[in-house]
Automatic annotation (TrEMBL):
CDD domains: UDP_invert_4-6DH_SDR_e. This is Polysaccharide biosynthesis protein. Belongs to the polysaccharide synthase family. Pfam families: CoA_binding_3, Polysacc_synt_2. Residues 180-454 form the Polysaccharide biosynthesis protein CapD-like domain. Gene3D superfamilies: NAD(P)-binding Rossmann-like Domain. Transmembrane segments: none annotated. It comes from Paractinoplanes aksuensis.
Length: 488
């Protein structure tokens, strides 16, 4: 009973201190040299909101005055967080803004789907107030979330804010103390793989790429004191099978992440033989050299599911080659398949940003086109987690969110830019689908170990078929009829 009385007293004192602080600020007038605080309504009554409200109330540097909280959970209505009441749901946003004379709505949900972020933003703008967000967890690793972290919305917020949960013990078990090799280490995915792998303290991180500038950049991102004579960086092309074998013989990696690939779909449609040389024969060279590895992870793409173009077909062949080595080697050989990475060079967001900066127009293939979008950090976190749970011969399909309508993304980016830029529809290009699929027609969405990772078996492809076809006609390998009839 005494403990209960003490707890009640603590809660009462806290509530009184909050009310006094609010009364003092409302009646003491503005502080000299400081702008008046912006009255703000928070959307989301979770732990982030509680932490943020405390900072907004007591941090003298805060630019915001909290005047209410909205949350869609009916059981939270009437609750108080740091003395601020939950006063409604999203449907009440306009009325609450008017009643409280708020000038901003702050979105505080860290793992929301892009559709929710976009809806609350639209409601806030319709109510005539600013829309702001709290950063994702990965942005505030070195301090507790506070009022100073509140920022303007970014396009990645509107695409989705997916909080990825990984099992550090499982991941550490495959990486810590191991010799880990990453091909394509200078690319968007490869470099982020290197950064995240480095945190698990591998015995050695071997970064392989054919681009010397990209190698230097990834080395410095992993170790700011690193120099190009560092043995961690290896200049090599996966197309050179002899060089690849030499690297594996001398460095003896235990874990391999194969991220080297050509990815630009329209360009590969024009130059299919180059796609085959890197995506198929390069993958085969790395697979054949990986004789004694414990784990081999082939980084794939959603376009490998029921492929219709050069990129999809070459990546699907790479998945099937990887599966064929699952039955030949003692180690685990898996592929990991995910959607479009939003920050990637040449990605649709990068293209839209460049078009907006150039004054437009922004070109979208089709008004109904949809894609799965994910950030680089999310994709790589899931790749590493998938590697820890995959069974040899599988493709692990990562799905951090729902597909996004590309025309809406384009409109959001134009809106955020504040520039009068037109959007035009150019039509689907060769090898493109209207909607992206993560699973083939014969693949089931089973997620036995992780809610965001499905595991599907992959039919193996005998490497001799690839070598024979490559010797006769490399480009023919990318044509759907030839591939289906000769590689099935």
């Amino acid at each position: 009973m005494r403990r209960q009385r003490d707890t009640r007293s603590e809660n009462l004192l806290y509530a009184l201190s909050v009310r006094y602080e609010r009364w003092r600020r409302e009646h003491s007038g503005p502080v000299a040299g400081r702008e008046p605080r912006t009255r703000a309504v928070l959307f989301g009554a979770g732990s982030a909101a509680s932490t943020l409200l405390h900072s907004m109330i007591f941090d003298p540097r805060s630019r915001f005055e909290p005047v209410g909280v909205l949350d869609d959970d009916p059981e939270r209505q009437g609750e108080r967080l740091a003395g601020i009441a939950v006063v409604g749901t999203r449907a009440d946003l306009a009325a609450v803004v008017e009643r409280t004379r708020a000038a901003a709505v702050i979105f505080t949900i860290g793992n929301a789907e892009g559709s929710l972020v976009r809806e609350i933003r639209a409601r806030a703008l319709a109510a005539g107030v600013r829309f702001l967000v709290v950063p994702e967890t990965s942005e505030v690793l070195d301090h507790e979330l506070g009022a100073l972290d509140i920022r303007e919305v970014r396009i990645t917020d509107l695409v989705g804010r997916h909080r990825i949960t990984i099992d550090p013990e499982a991941v550490g078990g495959i990486l810590s103390g191991k010799r880990v090799l990453v091909t394509g280490a200078g690319g968007e995915i490869g470099s982020e793989l290197c950064r995240q792998i480095h945190r698990f303290e591998p015995a050695e991180l071997i970064m392989v790429d054919h681009d010397e500038r990209a190698l230097q950049a990834v080395l410095l991102s992993v170790d700011p004191r690193g120099e190009m004579h560092d043995p961690s960086v290896v200049l090599a092309d996966v197309r050179d099978a002899g060089r690849v074998r030499e690297i594996f013989r001398t460095r003896e990696p235990e874990v391999v992440f194969h991220a080297a690939a050509l990815q630009h779909q329209p360009l590969l449609e024009r130059h299919p033989d180059e796609a085959v040389k890197t995506n198929v024969l390069g993958t085969l060279a790395v697979l054949e050299a990986a004789e004694n590895v414990d784990l081999f992870v082939n980084v794939s793409t959603a376009k490998a599911a029921d492929p219709v173009g050069v990129l999809g077909y070459t990546k699907r062949i790479a998945e099937r080659l990887t599966a064929s080595f699952a039955g030949r080697r003692d180690g685990t050989f898996v592929s990991v398949r995910f959607g479009n990475v939003v920050g990637r060079s040449g990605s649709l967001l990068a293209t839209f940003a460049a078009q907006i900066a150039d004054g437009g127009p922004v070109t979208v293939t089709h008004p109904e086109a949809t894609r799965y979008l994910t950030t680089t950090q999310e994709a790589v976190q899931l790749v590493i987690q998938a590697a820890a749970i995959g069974r040899s011969g599988e493709a692990l399909v990562v799905k951090p969110g729902d597909p996004v309508r590309i025309a809406e993304v384009a409109r959001d980016m134009v809106d955020l830019s504040g520039e009068p830029v037109d959007i035009v529809f150019s039509g689907l290009r060769p090898g493109e689908k209207l909607g992206e699929t993560l699973f083939g027609a014969d693949e089931a969405d089973r997620r036995p170990h992780h809610p965001l990772i499905a595991q599907v078996p992959v039919p193996p492809l005998d490497p001799s078929r690839v070598r024979d076809l490559a010797a006769n006609d490399l480009a023919e390998l990318c044509a759907p009829p030839s591939f289906e009839s000769r590689a099935a």
